Protein 1
Amino acid sequence: MLTTGCTRSRPRWDCFPPGLPRPRSSSNRVRTTTGKRTRVTRRRPRRPRSAKPSCWRSSRSSRTSEVRSPSVSVVYLNGDYLRADEAKISVNDRGFLFGDGVYEVTPAYHGRLFRWAQHLTRMRRGLAALGIDFDAAALEEVKKGLLARNGLDDAPAAYIYVQVTRGVAPRTHAFPNPPVPP
């Protein structure tokens, strides 16, 4: 079974990569006077040890104001483009029952898939480890089609979620023989 969908979010600019200067304000300097000496130092930001930097926030943080709802308007399921409310996955799907599948997320910026070759290589490696046969040649066109059908082909940032499972099979722990096509 092949399931794909996409969502949109706004890029976060609150995380400064190394090497870029951070904005400065006049309040980050501290003047310390000891006797006749005066020393000016920079104030270090205080952060609890358990707090994570703002760039580690999840994509659903309060700073991402343009996040679409998790239910996207068009998905691709088993060879068909469907509305999200029409897409149904069987309760006997091995991915649903046992997590027997591969999940991959690919970001797209302005309609271009980011590091698509690396994502495809990782997905093929995971599918090979599980013994699932899958032809990934047409997957790039499916992803671009999803972006276009959801109106995200020119969005600043979008994410495409791909789930490939072993498919529907009787509820046993052994792999189905012969293999069920994904």
Protein 2
Amino acid sequence: MKNLLLISIMTLGAAACVSTELSNQHTPYDATKDARIRLYGQNGRPSFLTVNIDGKKEKVTVGGGLGQAFSSMVGAKDNESIGMPETPLSKNPSAHSKLLSSIFFKEFVIPANAEIQVTNEIISMDSTHTHYTATEKITTVIKGKSCKGNTVTFIPEAGKDYEVAPISTDRECGVTVYEIK
């Protein structure tokens, strides 16, 4: 029980330290020099975006921040759109939700002609439960599946919109980048 509590505290502490915004979040979208990107996340399945903005490497997480993860767990996390066109996945992302883990998306303005990296992972929460019968002690250990997805690197073009869709199974990690037409 102490180990589970320690792991939970460490996970919450690490989740509280992630960035969910880029430094250019209040800069208006300019189709002549920017592109836009939509990432999906959920509790236990964050997605990551790494980009250089004004010579500074920035990394944001969708679904891995403490507030986002908790809101996803209770089904209260809303999508954050900046006006990108809908896709079949973005019209109803909750159709892909799991118990205690609602999928949601967040959209960002990113610089065109700059290298972008996207990836995701599944973070498992292992647990141990011990109970006693009249004659014995029974310990149950549940090991969750965890994995780190492939990293996709691409260079977005000005005026284009991109969607980073997670692989939709519980056994695999990874993302696919689509250009929204």
Protein 3
Amino acid sequence: MKKPVYINYIASWGIGFLCLFFLSCEEEFKVNMPDNVADGIVFRGLISNGPPPYFFHLNKPAAISAEKWHYEGIEDAEVVIEDVTAGIKDTLRLIVPRKGDGVFYLNYWNYRTQKEEEVMMSSQEWLRGHGIYVTTKIYGIEGHTYMLDIYYKGEHHTATEIMVPKTEITDLKVQSFDLGEGKTASWAPIISFVNQPEIDNYYLFHVDGHSSLTFPISSIYRLFRADEHWSYSILSDEHLGDTVVDLLVSDGEGVRNIAPGSHYPTIGDSVFITMESISKACYDIYDKAIEQLRTDGGAYTPTPTNVESNISGNVWGIFRVSAYSEKGIFIDRRH
């Protein structure tokens, strides 16, 4: 008899994970805060098998304004990503935001389409628009090894990850759940897939109302929204067979104690499930973050800074390379 299937839930890894915990923690929490935290780096972004370019955000862990969660972008780092398998080294370009009337613009060269492209953001995001770096020639390819090198203030930080091939979602449907007398029935997405044999598989799920064709998982949009939408969940196949049928995908566990299911798209809309491959190292980091999140006394704060990173030195965040598959469905209002 197989052991019960379980899924761990994770809020997105963002800048809030690092600095805001101490503003409202309700329990005593022992964390290993280094003396040189002010010189540290908060790192976000990923390489995917989706269309390039890929975007990364570097900022300082000390808030400019704790009330508004403003963090200073790092614009004087050298960021290099190498496709070790293909022997291609890419020195990322800093995107300098340009102010407009109530908005600002981020311009970059899309080497896939061979066109200059522009993203318009609200002026409210101005401070967050600093410290964004973009790739100039690299592609995410399944099975390839990628190395990250960050040079900042005389320090060298590095990480290496392999892009584990994607696992296809073979079926997606929604199922209604009765939550008891007096409560409105809820629903959840159910998926089926076949695990890759002979290896340990680790996954990151994302439930969204938009397809990755509209907002790629490594796009600027996802980069900016990563620490606002707590809608990720992780899964290990340790307790699963090769063929997985009708597995419920959670909308993720957040830091604000929002009821389960709150992040699902509205009934009558479409729902898209993205299933991303992650390494054992990344899975363990997310899992540790979940553990810390669940023991913070219920404070409306992210996890403390003693969650490990897979990047060497005084860096918080994860260097992740993920291949993903996606499936979408329209949610009938009759469900």
Protein 4
Amino acid sequence: MRLLSFQIKQYRSIIDTGVVKLSDHDNISVFAGQNESGKSSVLHALRDYENDTFENNSLPFSTDARPIQQVSCTYGIEPSDNLATKLRSALVKNFKLTISDDEGLIDAPKINGIKQFTITKTKDGEKTSTEIDESTFNIFCNAVSEIAVLPATSEIEETVVEPLVNQIVVAPLVDEAVADAVKNLPISEMENDQVANIFWTCAPKIIFFDDFCDLLPDRMYISDLKAEKKEAEGYTAVRNLEKILKTNFVDKDAEDNAVRDVKESSENKTISIDFQNDWAQRIHGENEVVIKYKYRKLDEGSPKGSYIQFYVETREGQPLPPKQRSKGLIWFLSLWLELKAQDIDNDNLILLLDEPDQHLHVCAQRDILQLINKLSKSKDDRVGNQIIYSTHSPYLIEVEHLSRIKLVLNTEIEGTRAEDIVASVINTEYKKDALQPIAYAIGLSVGEFSMLSKRNVLLEGVSDFYYFCAMKKVLKRVGDYQFVPGVGLRKIDNLISLCIGYGLEWLAIIDDDPAFGGKDSKKKFDEIKDHVFDGDAKRTKEKVHILHNVVGVENMFTISDLKLVDKNLGKDVDMVKVVGRKRKVLFSKLFFEMIEHDKDGTLAEKISKKAKDNFSKAFDYIERNLP
């Protein structure tokens, strides 16, 4: 079971998000935008939904009234979720029923007809209510409406009850004495909110993490652990560590010294190796951050008695208390303890991470990203956790997975909204600001993977780069050459100079045919002809190819091709206008990502003949003229 979408109304800076659909490609969704855009408000609203209470400070900022607040979550059901079994268990627990495992309680085939359900939690003044969508409510009631069950605790005389113990009885009952004694399971009379709460208990648990997660302390007294003093500094972090190590620090008091020392050494080694697998950055030339605890036994007469001392060691022989280490390292360690412990306790979680990049430099942010990806993947018989995180850091945005990203922006009129990145028209300053970390991440990615090689095809820009890379796969071209994007047509001569200077093979592909409205391509062709080939047009044509009949690389496609990325595109003869100049790089990256994920070639077959012919001509030129 997974969260498909949500909608939030009247929460802090949010007026109405509309239905926000989460990534359907994997278990990770990213809410990206600048500071104060409302990213945190989105996650806080989902947290309040899970906690079944709306915080007082969650009311909208711009009104003195008390508006109706609402959070709706829609969950998708898979056959492997065994929803009927989960609902049966919830009913048994809720009504304290005594029935055997092989006895029915609900009509499983009817329940299996539920493919998704929506739970809405509403706060109106001081009243908070829970509701499930009408379709699911009706299916559920119909699946159990005729069942009557003997409760586990009954005041019925044994002579009447004995034949019926642990039996399901279908009403109406023949024996009036028995009929009077048996309490009907009041499913048919259940209110919508009761059914909603039963479904909610079957849904994945939502766990919220932010900057205030419990940090590992320097020490923890055994007496505080015995008393379950949850307000003690670092209590949750220490309990998480116990869970991961499968140990109990309270038991250390009673253990023999030799036994305790052996366990301590083994457990310190275990937790350190596990942490090192997720913390990859190097400190003092080493990445072996060692986590240690040490039991300190004190006399009973001492103020608080024995305690556990914690250390973090980044250089051998120099263990230091956590508070003397960097905030970034200790925050990462504490978050890591939380995530690992929750992963042990629960399967199929929804984890909310509010700006996990805070306090962390670039390398540590990449470690967080690696941990997020690891926890989201299915392993053995465990379903991967669904993870939703907010960020304005480009280092937590994977350009290989742009379909994960929701653009978060805040306007005075509409409040905070989250838009699908491919459908968002970048036509305001708000959107330009929200887009900044994503655009920067794409720039970083292209910079990393577009170094010059022995054989280079020079392109005008980043969007050309992604389209040509994608179409090379669609057309199954296998040439050994590197596409290298410039930054606009006027900058392509710099790439040519680099290739010539380093003795590398090259050719250039230029769109914007002057016969169809272009100007720069003819001028650039002549410049290259005069400065590189001494005015030799023939030699220039062997190195510089102007795409025929094309003004903008997007016009090599049809509208049907581009609608594979965004089905809501409008109509226009100019595909550049259809896509929009301000999102052309994002659009091309999403096209590339779509083709990369097209393992069986289904999408490749949908690409139009026009697009395939246009790109085939370009690839024929490349293969003909690049040695």
